[in-house]
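We now fix the convention by which a protein and its fold are recorded. Here is one such record, which you should read through line by line:

>
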Amino acid sequence: MAKSWWQKSRNRKGIHWCAWKDLCLLKENGGLGFRNLANFNVALLAKQGWHLINYPDSLLAKVLKAKYYPKSNFAEARVWAAKGLLDKGMCWRVGKGDKISIWNDLWISGNEADRVPNQVNNEYIKLVSDLIDANNRRWKLELIRNTFARDTAEKILQIPLAELAHEDLQVWRGELTGEFSVRSAYKLLQESSQDPNDINLQTSTKNFYRKLWNLEIPKKIQITIWKISLNLFPSLKNLKIKRVLTDDFCPRSRQAEGDGCHIFQ
């Protein structure tokens, strides 16, 4: 696929100006949004894992459980490559709270990336149900404020509790509906596989790329602007780096390198 993108024509090889993984980055992160097939395959596997977790009584779930994890559930099994993705993307919607570990599960809005640190020696506080007054369906205000940091306590108290107790639900945090989608799972996987330094760098340029790809201009012009913004074009300096040329000085001035800054100044 990379060869097809960069080649000039059927009989002429093109120069690969950047790695395929960079082309697979989201457009807002400086890539072209090409699909990373390995990550997309994991997202598809995660879709099946989502169904196994939420529909454990289905025929498929029963067959796979009998073969691969007869003595445990899917969440505890390690036979799926998508398990890590599901761990990152799934969180709990509080019902009764008796299935949710306070310290080991994701359940507080705004704390998707981290579990709540256990800084309490109270062995009686383990499940979210321990924080709920089951009779009045209210949070135990004093217990929560005495147990957690102020910001964490306020986030817990903002979680709505239904008047009628229902089972805890596992939902997908990548969608407002809470339903799993391959699109949001793939996006989460792409973002989590990026170098942290690259993510910080892209934060300041996301708006530029969003505006670029939303412009109503020919795609060829958009691609050209994209190449220039990332220095992915055949300047003399870049051609020397690729060992196409041995001299990268401007043939007119002979006083400066033929790089992007010199060309467009």
The longest strand covers residues 90-93. The chain has a mean pLDDT of 82.
